[in-house]
Design goal:
Blueprint (H helix, E strand, L loop, with lengths): L1 E7 L16 E2 L2 E2 H10 L4 E8 L11 E2 L2 E7 L4 H11 L9 E4 L9 H11 L5 E7 L4 E4 L5 E5 L5 E10 H14 L6 H7 L5 E4 L10 H14 L2
Parallel strand pairs: 1-4, 1-7, 4-6, 8-12
Antiparallel strand pairs: 2-3, 5-6, 7-11, 8-11, 9-10
The structure holds cytidine-5'-monophosphate.
GO molecular function, one term: nucleotidyltransferase activity
Catalytic activity: 2-C-methyl-D-erythritol 4-phosphate + CTP + H(+) = 4-CDP-2-C-methyl-D-erythritol + diphosphate
Pfam families: IspD
Length: 229
């Protein structure tokens, strides 16, 4: 049985507006409710630690989803600080060498089939694994003037998604080491890679997208409208 840490302490500045994106209303529910449903409806997920901002005015309070515990703790300035706080706040009976999932609050369209594959392959890996998808567009390197300097090869380039699956203590140590070194970490895998470890890439569905722009939100609303037909 696996616990998930869900960082939800971002202020969503890139989305615009005051309401952080994880609390945007979608069909009468906050976006994060769909993310928690996706995780907790999976039989292997035992509980979730939601990391919210200090003085969060928007979290509606939730003790359980699908009869499973939903705990909360306070996050930090950067995403990595929030994840580290979440790992530290997990119940004591989550052992140091146990695998935990980390999943963005703003990634509501996680499919069970993806989680199945991540857990199957990741729990068999000495380090752990992440969901990801290959880069399909041609990549351009921009110059200062907005012109194209050159085309970058896209072979072997992947886009990192969440969930990401690592052992509780190993991930805590890797995040703390990055924090101490003042290195900005954009996902958990990056912290592990800095330790010389090589997490496994597990190809996931392209529709496990992160809500970042209004267009992403419209896409998720469309996905939901198709789900209930
Ligand atoms: O900003 P970005 O889209 O990378 O955020 C990814 C996830 O990390 C979001 O769910 C956001 O709420 C969370 N986050 C956090 N603490 C921060 C910044 C972001 O928990 N300080």
């Amino acid at each position: 049985m696996i616990w998930a840490v869900v960082p939800a302490a971002g202020r969503g500045a890139r989305f615009g507006g005051e309401l952080p994106k994880q609390y945007l209303d979608v069909g009468g529910r906050p976006l994060i409710a769909y993310t928690l449903d996706a995780l907790l409806s999976h039989p292997s997920v035992h509980g979730v630690m939601v990391v919210i901002a200090e003085n969060d005015r928007f979290w509606r309070g939730m003790d359980a989803v699908a009869g499973k515990p939903v705990l909360t703790c306070s996050g930090g300035a950067e995403r990595a600080d929030s994840v580290l706080a979440g790992l530290n706040a997990l119940p004591d009976d989550v052992r140091a060498d146990e695998f935990v999932l980390v999943h963005d609050a703003a990634r509501p369209n996680l499919a069970h089939a993806d989680l199945d594959r991540l857990l199957d392959l990741g729990c068999g890996d000495p380090v752990g694994a992440i969901l990801a998808a290959p880069v399909r567009d041609t990549l351009k390197r921009a110059g200062d003037d907005g012109g194209i300097d050159r085309t970058e090869p896209r072979e072997r380039l992947w886009r990192a998604y969440t969930p990401q699956l690592f052992r509780r203590m190993q991930l805590s140590r890797a995040l703390a080491a990055a924090q101490a070194a003042g290195v900005a970490i954009t996902d958990e895998s990056m912290a592990m890679e800095r330790q010389g470890l090589r997490p496994l890439l597990v190809e996931g569905r392209e529709d496990n997208f992160k809500i970042t722009t209004p267009a992403d939100l419209a896409r998720f609303e469309f996905v939901l409208s198709q789900r209930h037909r």
